[in-house]
Sequence to fold (238 residues):
Amino acid sequence: MREYEIATILNTELDEASQVALTESIEGWIADSGGDIARVDNWGRRKLAYPIRRKYEGHYVFWYANLPPTAPAGLERQMRLSEDVIRFMITRSELIVPSEEDVENVESVEGASDDESVVSVSEVPATSTDDVPETVDSRMSSADSDLGESESVV
Amino acid sequence: MSFQRGGRRRSFQRRPRVCQFCVDNIDTLDYKNVEVLARQTGPDGKINPRRRTGTCARHQRMLARAIKRARHMALLGFDRGTWL
Fold:
């Protein structure tokens, strides 16, 4: 058994019931392939960075599961056949199960992200709090903007 | 500094000497961490080169992989650098 992260973007045009049915059927595929789900991360509706199949937003759901190494191939086939799975990705994860705080941070970031150049320190997600010291972040972003200016001079 | 000997000189931007990710003791870069990843792309959405950011080879590899995964999941764009 290995730890995998199954990331999906689901169709947002479904009604509530078929939405639930879809996630349940995906969980069914995971279970059928001999996997057990450790954690589900539901981001809900999110705007896509670029349109996929003429859709501008998607419903993001992430599953963290232990799967036998043969399982992802079958899962991928299932998801590719499903019309309502707009995009998916199965990656090995060292059970980097994000904490609840991270998830909340990501959501708060979504709201404030229309002005990306001014990322206030409080919004910096700090993956596992000690990962990204906030002071360093602000220094990095200022360095970036300096470089941008020098580029235009060239 | 930028005007010397009658010509417009290419201004020199000192390269950061140390890898910020090393300084921050980061050993995993998650593709879902759009905040951090977006900062490592230029206004056109390209991944910033190491020569500009000073990122070490190991972290640049991790970064490139994370950014490419984020692009696949439409968390980051392939161009323009706009996210959301």
